[in-house]
From TrEMBL:
<dbReference type="InterPro" id="IPR007085">
    <property type="entry name" value="DNA/pantothenate-metab_flavo_C"/>
</dbReference>
<dbReference type="InterPro" id="IPR035929">
    <property type="entry name" value="CoaB-like_sf"/>
</dbReference>
<protein>
    <submittedName>
        <fullName>DNA/pantothenate metabolism flavoprotein</fullName>
    </submittedName>
</protein>
<dbReference type="GO" id="GO:0003824">
    <property type="term" value="F:catalytic activity"/>
</dbReference>
<feature type="domain" description="DNA/pantothenate metabolism flavoprotein C-terminal">
    <location>
        <begin position="167"/>
        <end position="273"/>
    </location>
</feature>
<dbReference type="Pfam" id="PF04127">
    <property type="entry name" value="DFP"/>
</dbReference>
<comment type="similarity">
    <text>Belongs to the PPC synthetase family.</text>
</comment>
<feature type="domain" description="DNA/pantothenate metabolism flavoprotein C-terminal">
    <location>
        <begin position="43"/>
        <end position="97"/>
    </location>
</feature>
<dbReference type="GO" id="GO:0015937">
    <property type="term" value="P:coenzyme A biosynthetic process"/>
</dbReference>
Length: 327
């Protein structure tokens, strides 16, 4: 595949179709934001999971971006715990706040129930494990019910990069009424290249003619219009994923210079659960400031450990509060 044309955000939205239910989804967001504003709550938009790029209109094949949704779902829980309202915009079927604790991979639900079935003949180890599982479930359920009662979580889903970009623009515009009290936490892994509608084959691409050559266009860099047009003074946090640790800081600095938002959080693929770097631009004097945030790795997957998102969110709450105070 070779690199091709790049779309401006304007050209992109003028030529790529909006998701069918966009107007309906945004009506729900408007109502949610108005309710939170009336209760004086800060609101954070959390994006989470990877976007796909379909290769055919009747889609059989697509490219995907890596992300399980752990960063976004976990962070959303800590924002909720801190009293923020959360718009959780995630890839369909990726992890979600609260239910993430009992997904097919973490604590598969049947294994969890099997623990409960240990019964009268169970040994002490079995009973202790079941008791621990009960306590954990109760804590998750209590937090979840509290959020349901308060009405502070609103969920939206996307699959393709088109869904994502249309939703991101519309949700950001709705949220901008909160000015500095809105935060945008962009943890989704978004495709850099896509196939415009106009270039897609209608039906399944046929094999049998040798290798496949696809020329993709560059997805518009929407952080710039997001900063300059869609949000008004909101606190924007973007994430940068790299597999070469040495690129993290230069790429994060370049993004801050190009888009002018508040902070980039850099993370390397394999160490992302134990360390991240916050990169920020100070104006007087004009310099970049980097601070690493690290936690100790878990001794084993079975042992309950601290989640790095707890510290990421705590740090952002401090910075957001300062940002609101500067107004
Ligand atoms: O969802 P997850 O926990 O598996 O991964 C999170 C992440 C690495 C996708 C996220 O922290 C991130 O860096 N998002 C931005 C990716 C990018 O540079 O496009």
């Amino acid at each position: 595949m070779s690199e091709s044309a790049s779309f401006s955000a304007e050209a992109y939205f003028a030529t790529q179709p909006a998701p069918q239910l966009l107007a309906q989804e945004i009506a729900g967001v408007k109502e949610f934001v108005a309710r939170q504003a009336a209760q004086n709550r800060n609101v954070v938009l959390v994006t989470s999971g990877g976007t796909t790029v379909p290769l055919e209109l009747n889609v059989v094949r697509f490219l995907d971006n890596f992300s399980a949704g752990t960063r976004g779902a976990t962070s959303a829980e800590y924002f909720l715990k801190a009293g923020y309202a959360v718009i959780f915009m995630h890839r369909q079927f990726s992890l979600q706040p609260f239910s993430r604790h009992y997904s097919h991979s973490t604590n598969p639900f049947l294994d969890f129930l099997a623990l409960e079935g240990d019964g009268p003949g169970a040994d002490t180890v079995g009973i202790t494990a079941a008791k621990r599982a009960d306590e954990d479930l109760l804590a998750v359920l209590t937090a979840y019910k509290r959020v349901q009662t308060a009405g502070t979580l609103h969920t939206l889903t996307f699959v393709t990069v088109d869904d994502y970009l249309w939703l991101l623009r519309a949700v950001s515009q709705e949220l901008s009424v909160l000015r500095r009290r809105a935060m945008y936490y962009l943890a989704a892994a978004v495709s850099d290249f896509f196939l415009p509608r106009q270039k897609m084959s209608e039906h399944k691409i046929q094999s049998g003619k040798g290798s496949l050559h696809i020329e993709m266009d560059q997805v518009p860099k929407v952080l710039k219009p997001m900063v300059e047009e869609w949000t008004r003074d909101g606190y924007i946090v973007s994430f940068k994923l790299e597999t070469d640790q040495r690129l993290l800081i230069p790429k994060a600095r370049a993004a801050l210079e190009r888009y002018g938002h508040q902070v980039v959080i850099g993370n390397e693929l394999h160490s992302r659960k134990v360390q991240v770097v916050f990169v920020e631009r100070k104006r007087k004097p004009m310099t970049f400031v980097e601070s690493w945030l690290r936690i100790a790795p878990a001794p084993s997957a079975a042992i309950h450990v601290k989640e790095i998102e707890e510290d990421i969110v705590a740090e952002l709450l401090r910075r957001h509060e300062a940002w609101i105070g500067e107004a």
